Amino acid sequence: MRTNTGRQVGRYVLLVVLGLIFISPIVFMVSTSFKSRIEAAGVPPTWIPTGPTFDAYSSILGSDGTPVLRWFGNSMVAATANAALVVATAALAAYPLARMSFRGKNIVFGLIIGTLFIPPVILVIPNYLIVGELKWLDTLAAVIVPTAASAFGVFFLRQFFLSLPRELEEAAMLDGANVFQVFTKVVLPLSRPALATLAVLAFLTNWNDFLWPVYVLFSPENQTLPAGLSTLQSANNVRYDLIMAGAVIASAPALALYVFAQRFIIEGVSRTGLKG
């Protein structure tokens, strides 16, 4: 009994230590955003601001040169639309690969998986040329559409679809449902955890993307939040309070989304066999 109790206590202590390690940067970021300009740059740094102030938020939200709310809206629209497209295209591609039999299915799936090994930076120039030909440069379409087809999304949903019992689909077909009705009325409702997980991952990937928006968005009012916030460092001579305030604004939706969808993420990942 003592051995088991000791192990359990050790696990809790380890979890607490790891939790503090992971949460400390977030606490310091929020704390610094409420510091004055002088205190934020002070050495050694302080964890608790001596004189909490909203000056950083007032400056970053009230400046004409840094339309943070506009950037926030652009990022929200782009990430939401991209997540919806990723889920739609991945689901439509994954279901045939999981349930249907056709010539070359394994080759198609292998080619899709093979694209995961291509570094994304290699595709920057080809995608830029394509977006330019489509007249999408300096528009949100340039940061929404190019990544709408996700190889990881296809693999992730295929694994989940394989875990679903075939008997449910066969019963629906016996009742007169066609393949598309089985997909929309049976498979998709049962796949909500996996769909939610993929949507969250796609949202966060697009929300945090920095390199691609810098290349294709030129006008200050059309920037997304990560690309726009990068101008704070040069424009304000490294104002740490402003940078941390911008980081808080950028992190809040991502943290809230993960907390809200945590249950679906855990269930979706456990059902696909992607543990660990």
Describe this structure in words.
The protein has 276 residues and is mostly helical. It has one domain: MetI-like fold (Orthogonal Bundle), CATH 1.10.3720. The protein contains 15 helices and no strands. Helix 1 runs antiparallel to helix 15 and helix 9 runs antiparallel to helix 10. The longest helix has 33 residues. The mean pLDDT is 83.
Overall pLDDT: 83
Distance between the termini: 29 Å
Name the CATH architecture.
Orthogonal Bundle
Q: What is the count of structural domains?
A: 1
Q: What is the fold-level CATH name, i.e. the topology?
A: MetI-like fold
Q: Nutshell version of this structure?
A:
This protein is mostly helical.
